[in-house]
Design a protein that fits this description.
The structure is a homodimer of 196-residue chains. The first copy, chain A, has 196 residues and is mostly helical. Chain A is built from ten helices and no strands. Chain A has one domain: Orthogonal Bundle (Tetracycline Repressor, domain 2). In chain A, helix 7 runs antiparallel to helix 8 and helix 9 packs antiparallel against helix 10. The first copy, chain A, is elongated, with a radius of gyration of 19 Å. At the A-B interface, helix 7, helix 8, helix 9 and helix 10 of A face helix 6, helix 7, helix 8 and helix 9 of B.
Chain lengths: 196, 196
DNA sequence: TCTGAATTAGGACAGTTGTCCTAATTTGTC
DNA sequence: GACAAATTAGGACAACTGTCCTAATTCAGA
């Protein structure tokens, strides 16, 4: 593994802190402590806190792309979608403690009326477009985007409720229900054409 | 209308600010300005910011109970549930700007590891239990709680995505889909008994 | 080994935070 | 109208915020 530069290390630690505590609630002092550098040193790498947020979003866009690319190794689009659904299981501890990193960041930036909210929603757009292409590969050309948004929204709802109630059982039940829903979707509609 | 006491007025203005900006991002100065009283005056009514949060949650519990009671005037349980779903439409402007007040408060308090998060989730519990009793009245005795949680989660997912993308079309489409789902639910299962 | 650039630590800075105190004012009751 | 209680304004307080500066250190290339 290549050695991490200081800006990369700052972005990584800030990413975790912004997720676990929120953007506003995380101070420079918190990040400095996590990285192990002095507070005043930040401004050689980032000119403001918003700049760090920008780097964190860029980082999340990159890790999301990498994760989606990894799921592409599975030949079956249905299995790829199941990989997406199962991140709820894989990350269940963090999700029950802090919610979904993408959803909660978007929510916070909306409230702060922060200009970076548009870039944050691009992370959602990555998932949406990737899911839509999987649904399209399953033959759902007409409603690929709708199905993608539905699944994305449902995952968000699960994350919010599981975190609010600390209810792992609900999370697991909903993941199972989403997999059943996926299996029950009509397939091989490739040649079917619906009138406009 | 009875004249509002100062503590009530503080709780009302804080309620709005906590919703629109978040709990942490709202300062005493912000609330003081909204109420029109001096900053130092707070401590005669509330001994800390957490005390104000407590009053805000108490207020939200009360307004939620009142709203649910209002919906009870409709004789048809299915229509009552539709009243719930349609708050997404009624409050769409605020939801697209700030998300769901209940969900976003729970999310923020989770991240802050705040002791009031349990009380905040009680607001969700009010909705869940009320919805469950409506589903039970529709004949879904066995799975009333599950259906309530599903509908609650779906609403939360819609609020998160509609706010992230600023997508009113998605919000409206999902409300319509939830109403269709409700209409398609099997009814009059009152006499049916499933084992155990 | 020398030199210029990159990186660092530590602190100064003005502003804001939640909290608390005191003194003045208003209020309700006799 | 007098008086005790409730309520108010305004500011003090230490701690913390994001930002910025300067001087010391480390590093890379000749």
């Amino acid at each position: 593994m290549a050695k991490q530069t200081t800006p990369e290390l700052i972005a990584e630690k800030a990413d975790t802190l912004f997720y676990e505590r929120g953007f506003e609630a995380t101070s420079f002092a918190d990040i400095a402590k996590a990285v192990g550098i002095s507070r005043g040193n930040f401004y050689h790498h980032f000119k403001s806190k918003d700049d760090i947020l920008d780097a964190v979003i860029t980082r999340r866009l990159a890790t999301t792309r990498a994760m989606l690319a990894g799921w592409e190794e599975d030949a079956d689009p249905a299995q790829r979608i199941i990989s997406f659904v199962r991140i709820l299981i894989v990350n269940r501890s963090k999700i029950m403690a802090y919610g979904c990193p993408v959803g909660t960041l978007n929510t916070e930036l909306s409230k702060l009326d922060h200009s970076a909210q548009n870039r944050a929603s691009d992370i959602f757009a990555l998932f949406r477009d990737w899911l839509a292409s999987q649904f399209a590969a399953l033959g759902h050309r007409q409603d690929a985007q709708d199905l993608a948004m539905q699944l994305l929204a449902r995952s968000q709802g699960v994350a919010v409720m599981a975190s609010a109630f600390g209810d792992e059982g609900f999370l697991r039940a909903e993941v199972a229900a989403m997999e059943s829903w996926l299996a029950a979707l009509p397939k091989n509609l490739t040649t079917k054409r619906q009138g406009h």
